[in-house]
Amino acid sequence: MKLVPLADRVVLKQLDAEETTKSGIVLPGTAQEKPQQAEVVAVGPGGMVDGKEVAMSVKKGDQVIYSRYAGTDVKLDGEEYVIVRQNDILAVVK
After folding, report:
1. Rounded CA separation 29/24 (Å)
2. Predicted local distance difference test score (pLDDT) of residue 49
């Protein structure tokens, strides 16, 4: 199956969480923070959203930083994704 986002939605695949701290302490899975950096897997077409024209400024393959509590978690074919609105994406990592 394939996720195809609508309107200004973007499908993200989270990058792996850090398993150790900078000082070398190994974190168990429950103590790891949800990463805010992800790779763009699919981008919606944009268009009219709430009466305003929305042009998509991210593309497939971009690495982005998104708002910590944004989006909807989705599990498809054993993979975990997050679907967010484009305005929940804070920056593109270059």
Report:
1. 15
2. 79
Cα separation, 60 vs 11, whole angstroms: 9
Of 15, 9, 2, 18, the closest CA to residue 64 belongs to: 15
* Partners of 84 in beta bridges: 10
Give the three-state DSSP class for 25: coil
Question: Structure pTM?
Answer: 0.80
The span from the CA of 82 to the CA of 94, in Å, is: 21
For the sheet with 63-66, list strands across it: 72-76, 79-85, 9-14, 37-43, 63-66, 89-93
CA 67 – CA 52 distance, rounded (Å): 22
Instruction: Specify burial of residue 84 (Cβ count, 10 A radius: 0-12, 13-18, 19+).
Output: buried
Nearest residue to 38 (alpha-carbon basis) of 19, 7, 8, 60: 60
Report pLDDT for 31. Answer: 46
